[in-house]
Queue: 2 jobs
Job 1
Amino acid sequence: MLVDAGEHWHERPLFANHLWWHAALRAWHHGDVDRAFEIVDAQLTSTTAFGLCDTTAMVWRADLAGHETGERWVALADAWSAVVDVHHSAFVDVHAAVVAATVEGAFADDFWHGLAARTDTTPASENDRTFTEVVRPFGDLVRSWRAGGSHRLGRDAHEALADKLWHVGGSVVQRQVMHDTLHAIGAAP
């Protein structure tokens, strides 16, 4: 039913990308990884920050599950490098952080420098606290894990981070990949 309505989504291009993400996620949950990637490659084409979050989330899920992702991470890093809307939305930055932790290069360097600058001040708002208490620790953890470094959190620190993931926004389904990442890293309680 969802995909059958896809021909009408072009009328709402900003929403269409996210609807295709739902279709890819449905294929994923039914075990049809090939179909999920077909949708990712053909339909998740938005280059906006939130559009890239959809694509990043699907590639991220596949990577965590051990599926071959090909050059998708590199393509994502290239796409994210053109996005200027980072370091304003915690939800966006968590997704961008995973790409920056996965693909070294100019985007990663710029992203980590910008995130450090964003969080090296005293938090003045709830958004600032979310960046300081959730986005940066999560990003640093994933970055260390991807680099093969020390990535274990103590049980209390892990629980504190896991309990705060909701602050980044998004739905429970959208945040599940963040929790799955903590489990994959081995930091889960």
Job 2
Amino acid sequence: MTADDIQKFEKDGENYWLNIYGLHDTDTIASIYEKQGIHSLVIQDILNINQRPKFQEYENFSFLTLKSIVPSENEMITEQISFIFSSHFLISFQERKADFFEHLRVRLRENKGIIRERTVDYLLYAMLESILDNYFKTLNKLD
């Protein structure tokens, strides 16, 4: 998906979620930032994988970044996940293709549950709940 594709959703007034895997495609990321009017400090925070958890409100969007735990048998691996969101869009950025959100995609594709009926902030809530579930799964393995 490109920044121009995003503008099509915005013209139709639809809510949308864009998930970006990896932070290596800086051209695509930069074009999205430009189209959405995202502050350059947010770009720096997303690309800095050592960023501490943070929430910041801006005029047209909010930004949240946090660490997630990637389930692993032998070691504890963390991954930064960042979110930019407003009332009509949610953009998530993941370091790796480890996908915490596939079950949410299935629910959206198959129109199951209430995610499509709710606002973007409910989708963000469901995503954060998935990240927290991974914390608990990892803690249970350590017991």
